[in-house]
Amino acid sequence: MFSRVSQLARHLSRPLPSYGSTSLVQRPRTTTFSYGLMASSSAVTADERNFRTIHTAACLIIGDEVLGGKAASTNSNYFAKFCFSLGINLKRIEVIEDDEDEIIEAVRRMSNRYDFVVTSGGIGPTHDDITYQSIAKAFDLPLVLHAKAFELMKKISKPRPGEKPFNWDEESPTLRAKLRMVELPTDSSRDMEKQFLFPCEDLWVPVAVVNGNVHILPGVPRLFERLLDGLKPAITPRLGDPEGKGTVRVLISTPMSESAVAPFLTELAERVGPKGVKVGSYPRWGKNRNTVTLVGKDKEFLESIVPEVVEQVKGRVVTVEGEDDDLVEAVEAEIDTKIDEKKSN
Predict the structure, then answer these.
(1) Which of 67, 86, 128, 297 is the most buried (most CB within 10 A)?
(2) pLDDT at 99 over 60
(3) Are 180 and 205 contacting, i.e. CB atoms less than 8 angstroms apart?
């Protein structure tokens, strides 16, 4: 079986003259690229990145359709919530086009600066899906046909209604397109199980982990979310908070304007900042109440300062922003009614 797969890979894979051919047998890495300092020459090795504690994260959204307004970047929002729930400090979210140089620059920079990096998009079968090949170039790696992913693809993929069963043994443009999705950046010097994860048993899509901390995920939201959630068991033991309690956010609804609460919040931020607490204020246009937030990992300390904040901003704690709008409007309507009644009398 492996010989047949290897033959397919050698015969069908698109030419990759600049960074190696796609086959089950990896060729020596002889090509260098002029995109700046190579990550392999960094003081931190890929294996070290693969095991170090996760404190910070970054998300790279790749796709012309997002920048063109055709699709919303829902994956970045889901990733932000994922990090928040685990207590990971999400430091950066970027959206870039399907451009090789842009991908190479961004992924190298993020890999060097952050502990946990996720990319979203650009790993499909079409010509503009260039994430795998770009990240391979970024870290001077060849693209190699992943046999397990290819076998799972054949096993799990089903023809759509009205389509004939696909012939996996016949050379065709469609087969070459499918192979693009299982030709992955591969470092032959490292443990393969650390480089390729299969978080969901019913999906053939792997999560390629490049340079120890760059996790390549699809852009389809349903797949992105399932695979990201599936990574949780692998990354939880490496969290700065080993119990994975995550970050705590307290929402306080206030009738005061931002300018009115600004002096107190400025003083509060300076006072509680050393305790790891971030203080925020967010206007709600068209509403009668704004929101003050307290965010941190020390739940006990956060709860200890809530009464003071509630008193100073004349507010109340809410679980969801805007949940008290109806109540406030009802009270105000009742007050207006009583005032009108007094005037009429």
Answers:
(1) 86
(2) yes
(3) no
Question: What are 181-233's pLDDT values in tens digits?
Answer: 999 999 999 999 999 999 999 999 999 999 999 999 999 999 999 999 999 99
Domain 2-238 annotated CATH 3.30.750.24: no
SS (H, E, C) the chain: CHHHHHHHHHHHCCCCCCCCCCCCCCCCCCCCCCCCCCHHHCCCCHHHHHHCCECEEEEEEECHHHHCCCCCCHHHHHHHHHHHHHCCEEEEEEEECCCHHHHHHHHHHHHHHCCEEEEECCCCCCCCCCHHHHHHHHCCCCEEECHHHHHHHHHHCCCCCCCCCCCCCCCCHHHHHHHHHHEEECCCCCCHHHHEECCCCCCCCCEEEECCCEEEECCCHHHHHHHHHHHHHHHHHHECCCCCCCCEEEEEEECCCHHHHHHHHHHHHHHHHHHCCEEEEECCCCCCCEEEEEEECCHHHHHHHHHHHHHHCCCEEECCCCCCHHHHHHHHHHHHHHHHHHHHC
Architecture of the domain defined by 248-342: 2-Layer Sandwich (3.30)
Domain ranges of the chain: 2-238, 248-342
What was the pLDDT predicted at 69? 84
Q: How far apart are CA 143 and CA 207, in angstroms?
A: 14
Task: Compute the distance between CA of residue 229 and CA of residue 59 in angstroms, rounded to an integer.
Answer: 15
Say what the pLDDT of residue 10 is.
46
Whole-number pLDDT of residue 11: 42
With bands split at pLDDT 50, 70 and 90, how would you rate the model's confidence at 332?
low
